[in-house]
């Protein structure tokens, strides 16, 4: 019975994943939100990042930049690695190869399922798998401003599905704005770049405006 | 940095980074883990640093997604999943961002737990309880479309109260590359045949690993200890027999003919302490064909788990009476 539940949600997700990049590609690149003041943008982003890291620092009384404990509610101690479960050890991830086995792609591309059980199961790697380069889109750009503090996004992504903080919620936002200012046109090559950064400009300060 | 060049490298996750990050180790507080006690709650937290290589686009999309996913899972507060309290990112350079994950701290993992278990090993009840918790955690992850992919005793934390907490999932793609920092080779022992054969795979991979761990809880040593992919497959077939031709995946390069025609041996030869239901469940988890393998939810419904309340007392009395044929039926 839970199988049935799973497969319907997995399907939804599959559909969402398949269609979203398609939408993105069909449009011509335009300057959707007018010219961007890159200096202002970069100032805003830096201020935001400082704000976030200051909050992290206070919450945990730990200086994450210098890797040093500060005084506060948490009494920090340094434990030799061998005395702690291996799980807590530091590790490295390469940015370009997000360690997703190549064969995983095969599961979503070639081995497409005929029966619902296979579909449900194969949907899993797709959903949690690393995206290909083409999938880098606004959804993710917006997230980056917060460097992992995803909970901070809820104020403007959470209108439809606040608890799920899902990429899809943001898509709606994107298309709404796109319609609003779609008549503004500039040259296409730079516009492609601008439209991406524009999301940052639009979304970051908006919380202050509203 | 170099993208994995060939899909035939099954250790694709880590081979790409084998050398690159080593040069960067010098700096940080490598070799120690930061752990803290919250004086208000008395609870312990620990920091896990993940250094993420970045390019002009900043953090990789996959990393951002994984963090978002972990945070979303966190809202469910599942008792068998390690608590993630916060995620803090610090930019180190244009090429590197340090992502610090603040986790609850648990003192030991299942590996140590098994090593420290006194002489006769864990009681059958203890094993059953651990398995039940492990499968609940797993079924939670699977129902949230998260595959662990690297389940092993080191990734399963056990609190001093005996509570099981799964760790290292979701961001597993990040975490699992311990190899980048330590010379330890990523273990193949818990890998299912479909991964060893480089066929397509999904959540059943975790069930296979769980099966291996199930057996290990009784044996206190791993069930299949292969030294290479082929060796690992060989070890598996020595116990479970060579699967029939029609079950061999079609999308793989390794031919079934490479392996001797072996027949399945009774699983109780390898896990003598297990009872009948347990053995049955174990074989359902160690099913070669991933589509026929039991799911986490179904495994929890197995009769092995259905005897708890009335039988607990008698069972614990029976503990000492080890039946070689796995004869303790409850």
Automatic annotation (TrEMBL), chain A:
Source domain of life: Eukaryota
Coiled coil: none
Biological process, per Gene Ontology: negative regulation of DNA-templated transcription; negative regulation of epithelial cell proliferation; negative regulation of mitotic cell cycle
Alphabetized InterPro entries for the sequence: CDI_dom, CDI_dom_sf
Record flagged with keyword Cell cycle: yes
Localization in the cell: Nucleus
GO CC aspect terms: nucleus
Keyword RNA-binding: no
Keywords: Cell cycle, Methylation, Nucleus, Protein kinase inhibitor
Chief location category: nucleus
GO terms for MF: cyclin-dependent protein serine/threonine kinase inhibitor activity
Family, per entry: Belongs to the CDI family.
Subunit and interaction comment: Interacts with PCNA.
Functional note: Potent tight-binding inhibitor of several G1 cyclin/CDK complexes (cyclin E-CDK2, cyclin D2-CDK4, and cyclin A-CDK2) and, to lesser extent, of the mitotic cyclin B-CDC2. Negative regulator of cell proliferation. May play a role in maintenance of the non-proliferative state throughout life.
UniProt protein name: Cyclin-dependent kinase inhibitor 1C
Organism of this sequence: Oryzias latipes
TrEMBL record, chain B:
A cellular-component GO term for this protein: cytoplasm
GO BP of this protein: cell division; G1/S transition of mitotic cell cycle; regulation of G2/M transition of mitotic cell cycle; regulation of gene expression; signal transduction
Pfam families to which the protein is assigned, alphabetical: Pkinase (PF00069)
PROSITE patterns, per database record: PROTEIN_KINASE_ATP, PROTEIN_KINASE_DOM, PROTEIN_KINASE_ST
Location in or out of the cell: Cytoplasm
Enzyme Commission number: 2.7.11.22
A GO term, aspect molecular function: ATP binding
Binding of ATP, residues: 48
Location of the Protein kinase domain: 19-305
Recorded catalytic activity of this chain's protein: L-seryl-[protein] + ATP = O-phospho-L-seryl-[protein] + ADP + H(+); L-threonyl-[protein] + ATP = O-phospho-L-threonyl-[protein] + ADP + H(+)
Presence of the UniProt keyword Secreted in the record: no
UniProtKB keywords: ATP-binding, Cell cycle, Cell division, Cytoplasm, Kinase, Nucleotide-binding, Phosphoprotein, Serine/threonine-protein kinase, Transferase
Chief location: cytoplasm
Coiled coil: none
Family the UniProt entry places it in: Belongs to the protein kinase superfamily. CMGC Ser/Thr protein kinase family. CDC2/CDKX subfamily.
The protein's name: Cyclin-dependent kinase 4
Native organism taxonomy: Eukaryota, Metazoa, Chordata, Craniata, Vertebrata
Gene: CDK4
């Amino acid at each position: 019975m839970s199988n049935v539940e799973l497969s319907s949600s997995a399907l939804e997700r599959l559909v969402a994943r398949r269609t979203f990049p398609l939408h993105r590609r069909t449009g011509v690149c335009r300057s959707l939100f007018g010219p961007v003041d890159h200096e202002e943008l970069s100032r805003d982003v830096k201020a935001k990042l400082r704000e976030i890291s200051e909050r992290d620092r206070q919450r945990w009384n730990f200086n994450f930049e210098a890797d040093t404990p500060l005084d506060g509610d948490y009494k920090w101690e340094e434990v030799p690695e061998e005395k702690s479960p291996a799980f807590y050890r530091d590790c490295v991830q390469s940015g370009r190869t997000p360690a997703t086995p190549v064969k995983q792609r095969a599961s979503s591309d070639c081995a497409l399922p005929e029966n619902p059980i296979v579909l449900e199961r194969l949907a899993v790697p797709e959903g949690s798998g690393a995206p290909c380069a083409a999938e880098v889109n606004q959804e993710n750009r917006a997230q980056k401003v917060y460097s992992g503090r995803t909970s901070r996004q809820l104020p403007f992504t959470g209108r439809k599905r606040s608890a799920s903080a899902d990429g899809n919620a943001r898509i709606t936002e994107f298309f709404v704005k796109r319609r609003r200012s779609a008549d503004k046109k500039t040259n296409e090559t730079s516009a492609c770049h601008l439209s991406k950064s524009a999301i940052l400009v639009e979304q970051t300060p908006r919380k202050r405006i509203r | 940095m170099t993208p994995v060049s060939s899909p035939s490298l099954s250790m694709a996750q880590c081979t790409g980074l084998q050398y690159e990050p080593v040069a960067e180790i010098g700096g940080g507080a490598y070799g120690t883990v930061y752990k803290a006690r919250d004086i208000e709650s008395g609870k312990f937290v620990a920091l896990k640093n993940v250094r993420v290589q970045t390019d002009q686009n900043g953090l990789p999309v996959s990393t951002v997604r994984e963090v978002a996913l972990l945070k979303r899972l966190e809202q469910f507060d599942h008792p068998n999943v390690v608590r993630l309290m916060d995620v803090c990112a610090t930019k180190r350079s244009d090429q590197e961002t340090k992502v610090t994950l603040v986790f609850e701290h648990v003192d030991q993992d299942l590996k140590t737990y098994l090593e420290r278990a006194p002489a006769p090993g864990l009681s059958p009840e203890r094993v059953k309880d651990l398995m039940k918790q492990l499968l609940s955690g797993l079924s939670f992850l699977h129902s949230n479309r998260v595959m662990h992919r690297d389940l092993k005793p080191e990734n399963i934390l056990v609190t001093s109260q005996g509570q099981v907490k799964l760790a290292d999932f979701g961001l597993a793609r990040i975490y699992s590359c311990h190899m980048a920092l330590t010379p330890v080779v990523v273990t193949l022992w818990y890998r299912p045949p479909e991964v060893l054969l480089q066929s397509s795979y999904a959540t059943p991979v975790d069930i296979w690993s769980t099966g291996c761990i199930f057996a290990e809880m009784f044996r206190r040593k791993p069930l299949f200890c292969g030294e290479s992919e082929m060796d690992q497959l060989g070890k598996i077939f020595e116990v479970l027999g060579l699967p029939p031709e029609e079950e061999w995946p079609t999308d793989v390069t390794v031919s079934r003919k490479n392996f001797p025609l072996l027949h399945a041996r009774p699983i109780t030869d390898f896990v003598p302490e297990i009872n009948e239901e347990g053995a049955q469940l174990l074989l359902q988890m160690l099913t070669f064909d991933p589509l026929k393998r039991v799911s986490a939810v179904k495994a929890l419904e197995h009769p092995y788990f259905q005897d708890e309340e009335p039988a607990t007392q008698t069972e614990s009395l029976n503990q000492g009476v080890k039946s070689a044929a796995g004869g303790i039926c409850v």
